[in-house]
Design brief:
The protein has about 375 residues and is an alpha+beta fold. It contains three helices and 27 strands. The strands form six sheets. The protein has a seven-stranded antiparallel sheet. The chain starts with a helix and ends with a helix.
Length: about 375
């Protein structure tokens, strides 16, 4: 009898131990599931971060708008270059440029290894993203590989001259076939969409916003999101040649005899920077390059605060583009407003030295 009672006691103890262990096992199972979920989430997050890093790294750091790193967009050229015809763009240690509007070339930053990439007609708005060069011509928007291995047409609608910008895998442009209204299309030609209903020019894409001059509202500056929403007016000046950098908008104020002004990207703190009649401004870093029409269309430069204003050369200038420490420009031998009769293309250092006709590089 005592043995029977002892056996019953042992069985009861085992039962209680089993019941006591069950929550611990469930906790372990739950912990295991949580750990697995966390590991999966970590893998997914890591994968997304790696993808983002791949999409945004490896691009030119010399041009202000061609930045690399996480959470930063890759822009194919600066707004100042694009509004001056997009004659030259820089990526890593290469400069890609058009010559005489009918051929596309590449050369190293030091001017070496200059070679032709493409022959075509009316090449403008050169952008470089990754291993693709994008450009605008009379029959549409095109892309060619930097190694010349592939050429493709993206749209059969051309952009307005000086108004096509490539940002990551999107192209934003003023559609010549639709009265200059802003369109967006993927770099593979898909997902074409119209973004606004006004004739627009001087397009700048910065972050998730597009800044532009609205021709239908006296050429005042507007801003909207890259999907076309949240459109609003920023100033009341007749404006041109807008350059948006670091939360500042630089522009030529046609309401004040084309003097250069600057304001914040929300339209506040609008102020004048110079007293020259100016055009075709190109902002690079802390410098503003511009054509001084008060001095016969010669090339000038000043700080972004308006100080240290001085002349760089005595040429009448057209198509002012900055690539690294080089300035590409056309010496105007006729009228800068006559796009048929223009002079030779020159290249010089940003301090005005080493002025050379571009033909000496490509011959």
């Amino acid at each position: 009898m005592k043995r029977f009672c002892l056996v019953c006691l042992i069985l009861c103890m085992l039962f209680l131990m089993t019941v006591g262990c069950s929550p611990s096992q469930n906790d372990e199972t739950a912990a295991g599931n949580t750990s697995e979920n966390n590991e999966t989430a970590a893998e997914n997050t890591s994968g997304n971060n790696e993808t983002a890093a791949e999409n945004t790294s490896g691009n030119n750091e010399t041009v202000a708008e061609n930045t690399s790193g996480n959470n930063k967009t890759v822009v194919g050229n600066t707004s100042g270059n694009i509004h001056n015809g997009g004659c030259a763009a820089i990526l890593d240690d290469w400069i890609y440029f058009q010559y005489n509007n009918n051929s596309l070339w590449a050369m190293k930053l030091d001017g070496s290894e200059c070679h032709k990439i493409y022959d075509g007609a009316a090449i403008y708005d050169v952008n470089v993203v990754g291993d693709w060069i994008y450009f605008n011509n009379l029959s549409g928007i095109y892309a060619i590989k930097t190694d010349e291995s592939e050429l493709r047409q993206i749209t059969d609608e051309r952009a307005h001259y000086g108004d096509m910008t490539v940002v990551d895998d999107w192209i934003y442009y003023a559609n010549y076939s639709d009265d200059g209204m802003i369109y967006a299309v993927k770099t593979d030609g898909s997902n074409l969409q119209k973004l606004n209903g006004a004739e627009s020019y001087s397009i700048n894409v910065v972050g998730d916003r597009i800044f532009y001059c609205n021709s239908d509202d006296h050429s005042t500056i507007y801003s909207m999101k890259t999907d076309g929403s949240d459109e609003h007016k920023l100033n009341n000046d007749m404006s041109d040649s807008i350059n948006v950098l670091e939360n500042q908008i630089y522009y030529c104020n046609y309401s004040d005899r084309r003097k250069i002004y600057v304001m914040n990207t929300d339209g506040s703190d609008n102020r004048k920077l110079n007293d020259d009649s100016s055009s075709y401004i190109n902002v690079a870093g802390d410098l503003i390059y511009y054509i001084n029409d008060s001095d016969g269309g010669k090339l000038y430069v000043m700080k972004t605060d308006g100080s240290e204003n001085h002349k760089l050369n005595d040429d009448q200038t057209w198509h002012l583009n900055i690539a690294g420490d080089w300035i590409f420009y056309i010496q105007d031998t006729h009228s800068r407003y006559d796009q048929i009769h223009r002079g030779d293309t020159y290249i010089m250092k940003t301090d005005g030295s080493n002025r050379t006709i571009i033909y000496d590089f490509i011959k």
